[in-house]
Amino acid sequence: MKTVPIQPFLVPLLIFISLAFLEASAQSEVQALLNWKSSLFQPDALSSWSLANSTTPCTWFGVRCNSAGSIVQLSLPIAKLNGTLHGLDFASLPSLIKLNLSTNLLYGSIPSNISALSKLTSLDLGGGLFAYASPYTFYSSLSLSNNLLGPIPPEIGRLAKLQQLNLSGNSLGGPIPSQIGRLAKLQQLDLSKNSLDGPIPSQIGRLADLQQLDLSYNNLLGPIPPEIWRLADLQQLDLSFNNLSGPIPPEIWRLADLQQLDLSYTNLLGPIPPEIWRLADLQQLDLSFNNLSGPIPPEIWRLADLQQLDLSYTNLLGPIPPEIWRLADLQQLDLSYNNLLGPIPPEIWRLADLEQLDLSSNNLSGPIPPEIGRLADLQQLDLSENSLNGPIPPEIGRLAKLQQLDLSKNSIDGLIPLEIGRLAKLQQLDLSENLLDGPIPREIGRLTDLEQLDLSKNFVLTGPIPQTIANLTQLTYLALFSSNLNGTIPVEIGNMKALTSLDISSNRLEGELPHTIAQLPNLEVISISYNNLSGRFPLQLGNWSLLYQLNLSSNQLSGSIPSELGDAARLTTLDLSANKLNGPIPTKLGKLKNLALMDLSRNDLSGEIPYQLGNLASLDFLNLANNNFSGMIPRSIGSMIGLKYLNLANNKFFGMIPRSIGSMIGLTYLNLANNKFSGMIPRSIGSLTSLQSLHLNNNSLIGEIPLSLKNCTQLVVLDLGENKIHGYIPYWLGERLSLLRILRLSSNALGGSIPLQLSHLSSLQLLDLAHNNISGSIPQDLGNLTAMVYGAQEKEEQMISISYKSSSECFRVYRCTRDGSGGPFYYSDSVSVTWKAREFVFQKTLSLMVGIDLSGNSLCDEIPTDLTNLSGLVFLNLSGNLLDGSIPNMIGKLKNLEVLDLSVNHLTGTIPQSISSLTFLDVLNLSNNHLRGRIPSGHQLQTLVDPSIYSGNDELCGFPLTKNCSNDQASVVRLSTHDDGDEKIWFYLSMGPGFVVGFWGFFGILFFKRSLRLAYFRCIDDIYDRFSRISMRSM
């Protein structure tokens, strides 16, 4: 049988099988893409993916094929794809070389079967934009970001041909899989901006071809693995913003090809290794925000190609090495926030290419070197927060390209150089908090590109605001506060249309507010407080639609508050206090829905509180004190449930305190003192559980102290004095109000005894129960009041001030954020105390007032000896009672006592000798008792020469009484006279040299130091101005 040859049939058969296979493969790829498209939330984003449009996927959007028709590239960045990767069958795409799905809306985990892409060389699933993105793509994709979750699948290590891997900008977690070390051909690895944790795997050192490694913005822990030095081809290394530890490994300097190194924000410790010089190709080095130590290694100058160097916030110390100026290519140098010492090296001029120089927040001293003017390319110069002195060198005017100049918070003195007007490109100028004097130069008006100008807190900066400042039409921020400027506000200020913040407070400006200020449509902040401005309140101020902060306090503005102010809808801060304003509060102010602070105190305003103020739901701070308001408090005030501070003191309000005040559950401070309120204290006040300070003194309130007040457990100050309150002192004051520091119940009709529970108030520093009908004995346990034992000096950490803290608003510091919020705010409390026979209001020194006043009652029995344990007492007044027995022998233990009044009692016995140990005693009254014997002498008692302080004690004798004691001898008198004569001679002999030294020690400094002389006389002028204002207001 003849054999039939099969060769002629084999080739066509193989061709047919291959075509069939390719057809099947192509169909599989098409089906895989269409299935994934259908799984997306918005399939229309891939509208071209349809067999109706084309029979082959090679023409579809984002798809590229090889000559055989197989898909080799799938590139769909910024395509608004919304879905997961689990709908994509990676095994159906065996020829895929490049996959780019970055900057979409993908979520879920990375499927482990992505490892089926065995030919893949580039994988980009990044969540955001990268270096190659154009400005157009940036703005068109701001809302696009992938959000892939879960761990990086270890199967990714099977992609053996992978050269580029980008998974950045997602929410991937867990450790970096060690299998990533199998990607032997990888050149770029970016896992930044995820939530990866754990250590950096040592296997990463196996990626011998790696050129770029970015692991920044994760939660990686532990040290930098020393194996990293094996990455010999590495050019870019970024490990910033992690929680790494340990030192910078010296092996890292073996990366000879490294051009960019960023280890910032990584908690690294130890010194900068001197081997740094081995990175000869390094162009960018950032080690900022670490816990490094030691000096800057002088070897750093060997990095000849270095262009950017950031060593800020690294605790480095010592001088700036002069060698650093040999980095001839350096463009950016940041050594801020360290402990660098010494002068700025004059060799700085050698950095000819330098564009940014930041040496701020160090301890640099000496003058600013004039050579700095030779840095012709410099654009940013920040030398703030150092100890630099001397004048600003005029050579600084040569920096023609300078855009930012900050010399603030130094001790720079002298005049502002006229040459500063040559900095034509300057955008930010900050010379604040220095010792600059003289006028603001007119040349500053040449800086027409200037956007921010801060000359504040130069206390001897004098003269008027130059009219040329109006040429700064690009200026948005102007701060001239806390200087010594005078004259008027120039009317030309109306030309500064871009101005958003104007702060010229705490100067000596006078005249009226120019009407042109209303022509500044972009103003958001106006602070012109603490000046001498006069005239009527300008009506146009309500035209500012963007204004959120207005502070015109402490001037002499007159007239009424314009109702147009209610149209400033964004206003959050309104402070018109300490002026001469009159008339009522405009009802339109109730429209200011965003208002957080309103201070109209210390004016001459009158009328009633408009009920419309109850609409101010955002109000936190309301101060209407020290005016002539009258009428009743409107019940609508209870609608301001977020109010924290309410002060209506020193007005003419009458009627009952409205029960609705109990609805203001956020109150921490309530002051209704010195009015004409009557009726009972409302029980609803017990609902104010956040209340820390309550002042209802000097009214005509009746009834008992309400039981509900025990719910106010945060109270620190309670002042109910000068009313008509009767009943007993509640025992629960000492049990429930454990934080009390100030308790005043004086001048009421309270009866009964002093409850023992008051001794439990360990923080109490002032107890005033004077002028009531209290009877019984003084409890011994009052000697256990802890704060009075330690006093304000030894217990300073507890008694530093009576101030209260709130978490969200800024009331005394007016540089708030746009919404009115800021850091914590503090307000100082005040209290009225009978001090040295006169009534004083203590505010700033309230923390020093440690005392007990039980005078004007019917207390009996002996003075408890335990009271002498209260060594911190500053005053003790037990006068006008029925006390008997002797003065405690240990009264001398009250070493801080300045006032002691035991008069008008039934005390007997002798005055104890220990009373002469009270070296601070300034006021003493023991009159109208039954004391006997010799008056002790010595120390402070010798200065108390008024005999009336001992009158009414017929059996007392000795100085300062004219009655001599029976055993006095003439020789003692003569000896005393002789000694007094010697003392007078020595006194006059020492007074002469003492006067000369003291006079020239003070006035000599003023004579030779012009800046201090100006500051001193400015202080004297300010004191005179303040007394003048007080005198004028009292008239």
From TrEMBL:
SUPFAM superfamilies (alphabetical): L domain-like, RNI-like
Any one GO CC term of the record: plasma membrane
Keywords carried by this UniProt record: Cell membrane, Glycoprotein, Kinase, Leucine-rich repeat, Membrane, Receptor, Repeat, Signal, Transferase, Transmembrane, Transmembrane helix
Record InterPro entries: Leu-rich_rpt, Leu-rich_rpt_typical-subtyp, LRR_dom_sf, LRR_N_plant-typ, LRR_R13L4/SHOC2-like, PRK1-6/SRF4-like
Species of the source: Cocos nucifera (Coconut palm)
Residue span, Disease resistance R13L4/SHOC-2-like LRR domain: 468-579
GO biological process, one term: plant organ development
Membrane topology (UniProt): Single-pass type I membrane protein
Name recorded for this polypeptide: LRR receptor-like serine/threonine-protein kinase FLS2
Signal peptide location: 1-26
Sample GO molecular function, one term: kinase activity
TM helices/strands, residue ranges: 985-1008
Similarity-based family: Belongs to the RLP family.
Major localization class: membrane
Pfam families hit by this protein: LRR_1, LRR_14, LRR_8, LRRNT_2
